[in-house]
Predict the 3D structure of the following.
Amino acid sequence: MLRVKQGDAAAFEDLVNKYKQPVMNLLYRTVHDATEAEDLAQTVFVQVFKFADRYRVESKFSTWLFTIARNLALNELRRRSRHPAESLDAGAEPEDEVAPRQFEDTRNVSAPDQLLRAELTKKVEESLAALPENQRTAILLFKEKEMSYEEISEILGCSLSATKSLIHRGRETLKQKLKPYLKTGNWREGE
């Protein structure tokens, strides 16, 4: 990022290539629209380039980047609530029938196992989507982006104890909602 601040276009391209997918994943799980997530991700990187001179070395680049992404996603959600729009694809295909976005599992898995895994993935996605925004974002940053509590608290703009509380409450809510789909009701660290 320091090279980007000095106008190095190749360094900016490297940052985009490294962080594009994690940013789009976070945005998709926030706004639940792949096209919108892609558009917002482009806006995030435009903001990074435009305001490169505001980047301060005191914080990690990823913390600064995900703060920008989160703020843009929240702005989009607020805009949607003020100005709801009818989809141009309405009636094309019911949303429930659209397969959830997943990465291909390259292991050999039987058809019943694939069906169960797809059902569990759908339930996890639904349960995550139902969490309050701060809890969902905290859990996604902690589990998927492997960020520290300190980095998450900086992104969310709340205290360290509030961040830990958000993650704990979110996990407990997920555990209760997903209990029927798990072999045990135990939540173990690292899962």
Remarks:
- The CA atoms of residues 67 and 156 lie 7 Å apart.
- DSSP finds eight helices and no strands in the chain.
